[in-house]
Amino acid sequence: MNTLVQRLSTLSSAEDFLDFFGLKYEESVLNVSRLHILKRFFQYIRQEQAMDIMDEVEMFRRLHALLAKSYADFVQSTPAKEKVFKVLQSADGQRVSLDSLRQTLKSHG
């Protein structure tokens, strides 16, 4: 039997997931945010309660909704604002100048 979890384990790209769940998407959004969308999707899944007791239809519907929400986050915002990756959380929106990088390299020798 080909279970939902088995089918999901064969997916690897944002396009794969969006196509699997039948969600329409803009290529321009994916070009900028594909990894951020997937990371947010998995963050939402981890926050979910009782996924392990859902039947496959209910789980499919819930995952569909979570992926749609993840995608919508990046249609309405940007990766820099959403900060799903630690490097963006640490940067806190600050820009680093090329001169400051050069100074850092000189001081580290």
Q: How does this structure look, described?
A:
- This protein is mainly alpha-helical and 109 residues long.
- Helices cover 68% and strands 0% of the residues.
- The protein has seven helices and no strands.
- The N and C termini lie far apart (60 Å).
- About 5% of the residues have low confidence.
N-to-C CA distance: 60 Å
Strand pairing plus helix content: what structural class?
Answer: mainly alpha
- The averaged pLDDT comes out at 82
- Poorly predicted runs are 87-91
| Tally of helical segments | 7
* Counted beta strands: 0
Tell me the strand percentage band. Answer: under 5%
The biggest beta sheet reads:
none
In short:
With 109 residues, the protein is mostly helical. The chain contains seven helices and no strands.
Topology:
Blueprint: H1 4-8, H2 14-20, H3 27-47, H4 56-76, H5 79-82, H6 86-91, H7 98-107
Helix pairs in contact: 3-4
Labels describing this entry:
single chain, 7 helices, 0% strand
